[in-house]
Amino acid sequence: MVAGVVVKDSHLEREFRMSQKNFDQVKDIAYDLTGIKLTDLKKNMIYSRLARRIRQRGLSSFDEYCELLEQPGNDEVTDFVNAITTNLTSFFRENHHFDFLVKTVFPQLLRKNSGSQRIRVWSAGCSTGEEPYSIAICLRERMPVTKWDIKVLATDLDTNVVSHGKRGVYSGDRIESLDESRCKKWFLRDPKSEEVRVKPALQELITFKPLNLLNEWPMRGPFDVIFCRNVVIYFDKDTQKTLFNRYADMLAPGGYLFIGHSENLHKVSNRFKSLGKTVYQKID
Ligand SMILES: C[S@@+](CC[C@H](N)C(=O)[O-])C[C@H]1O[C@@H](n2cnc3c(N)ncnc32)[C@H](O)[C@@H]1O
């Protein structure tokens, strides 16, 4: 150590003390409520997100906060869950999925569903809505949405992101990577702010609903396509196995499943065949 340099322990300067016991309690509650596994690597992130909750509730310690969370029927659960979720997303994230949707899945559905003229897509873990809006743009651009019965269900456990998605208002920089014609066609610019709003033509196709994937699902299905991308990375293998089995039950024969770039179904489910690049098809 260089003489005279004082090494500061950031933990000593923290507003609240979060003991290992507090963190373990938070970890167990998070897992039971959401399936999300918080590792010790997430300690700093959890500290800052929950310190905000402690302040907002006018409490003075993590002990008090954990006590509140342990009380049956307490009114902190929703805000706690909203605080611990990670909602990173973007329009046309992992763009190859949208190419596949347009070039392979849509033509197939046009043939397969020509009798019912009905298509259902589910964005499970939709975060703030960029994913279901990207799907809706593809549907509007390539499918007979005015003639067929075509709908997108967008769900997330975090009630704040569901409200954001429903509102459909984003800062302008969120659509910078889209080409200009798409921006003009599907978004309205607010001249007084830096914000953009998705057009009603997209919103009409989507129903946003809060839904915890671990709980019972109120919809009957079947879905033709399910997007569940970058959600199960936070789940353990057993939770993933149960979830993908339920997705297979919910999909129509030959239905498609899109998962995140760092996820795979190896040793998780044998009810799907891989079509490459994290796209799967249900085995009938
Ligand atoms: C990283 S975002 C992914 C958003 C989008 N699918 C994408 O790939 O861009 C993960 C989302 O999964 C949601 N999530 C986590 N656990 C969930 C659960 N048990 N039920 C429903 N949604 C959950 C989070 O709230 C978060 O919005």
Spatial ordering of strands, largest sheet: 6-2-1-7-8-10-9
Q: Helix tally?
A: 10
Text of the CATH class of the largest domain = Alpha Beta
Q: Unreliable runs, pLDDT <50, ≥5 residues?
A: 1-10
Query: Beta-strand level of the residues, as a percent range?
Result: 15-25%
N→C terminal distance: 65 Å
Per the CATH scheme, the topology name of the largest domain is: Rossmann fold
Which sequence of SSEs, written as H and E, runs from N to C?
HHHHHEHEHEHEEHEEHEEE
Instruction: Assign the structural class, choosing from mainly alpha, mainly beta, alpha/beta, alpha+beta, or little secondary structure.
Output: alpha/beta
Count of domain modules: 2
Which cofactor or ligand species appear? S-adenosylmethionine
> If classified by CATH, what would the architecture of the largest domain be?
3-Layer(aba) Sandwich
Which percent bin holds the helix content? 25-40%
Shape: globular
The average pLDDT value, as a whole number, equals 94
Report on the structure:
This protein has 284 residues and is α/β, with parallel strands linked by helices. It has two domains: 16-84, Chemotaxis Receptor Methyltransferase Cher, domain 1 (Orthogonal Bundle), CATH 1.10.155; 96-282, Rossmann fold. 39% of the residues lie in helices and 18% in strands. It has ten helices and ten strands. The protein has helices at 20-34, 43-56, 62-70, 77-84, 96-112, 130-142, 159-167, 180-186, 200-203, 237-250, and strands at 118-124, 149-156, 169-171, 187-189, 195-198, 206-210, 223-228, 251-259, 272-274, 279-282. A seven-stranded mixed sheet has the order 6-2-1-7-8-10-9. Strands 3-5-4 form a three-stranded antiparallel sheet. Strand 7 (223-228), helix 10 and strand 8 (251-259) form a beta-alpha-beta unit. Helix 1 runs parallel beside helix 3 (62-70), helix 2 (43-56) packs antiparallel against helix 4 and helix 5 packs across helix 6 (130-142). The longest helix has 17 residues, at 96-112. The chain is globular and about 60 Å long. It starts with 19 loop residues before the first helix and ends with a strand. Mean pLDDT is 94; it is low at 1-10. The protein binds S-adenosylmethionine. The site of S-adenosylmethionine (SAM) has 24 residues, from loops. S-adenosylmethionine is lined by residues 34-36, 85-89, 93, 125-127, 131, 156-158, 161, 212-214, 229-231, 260.
